[in-house]
Design goal:
By secondary structure, this protein is mostly helical. The chain contains four helices and no strands.
Length: about 150
Amino acid sequence: MCCLSVCCFILGTVLLLHAAATLFMTGLIWFVQIVHYPLFNGVGPERFTSYELRHSNLTTFVVVVPMLLELVTAVALVWQRSEGIALWQLWIGLGLVGVIWLSTAFLQVPQHNVLSQGFNESAYQTLVLSNWLRTLAWTARSILVVYWLSLEMS
């Protein structure tokens, strides 16, 4: 009985950490998509390169821990799942984490690399449009995570 309680505590803690990381990133990505990225084209060409560099460095500082925490806890939840959460749901959640990471690496980062050389309308439009993939993936993950929390609390 004691061992079961410890396992439940650990699994509950992993789920709470996972939910915190996912919900944080969902709020942040919506802010970036609706507020921050639209402001890029108003910075002006003479200051844009410096602005983009600061944006990339500061954003990395803010997102690296929650994104890694979300990834690690998503794997942990699949590996040692709660009986109350269907395995296929956890795999969908982990798959969405994969979509987010792949989108970041192959869609958003390359556009930021182009923009780091100066404002480029095509790269900017591609960045804003492609970022909807991450925005929707994190939103879907938040819905799943809130559902999982509700299952675990009932």
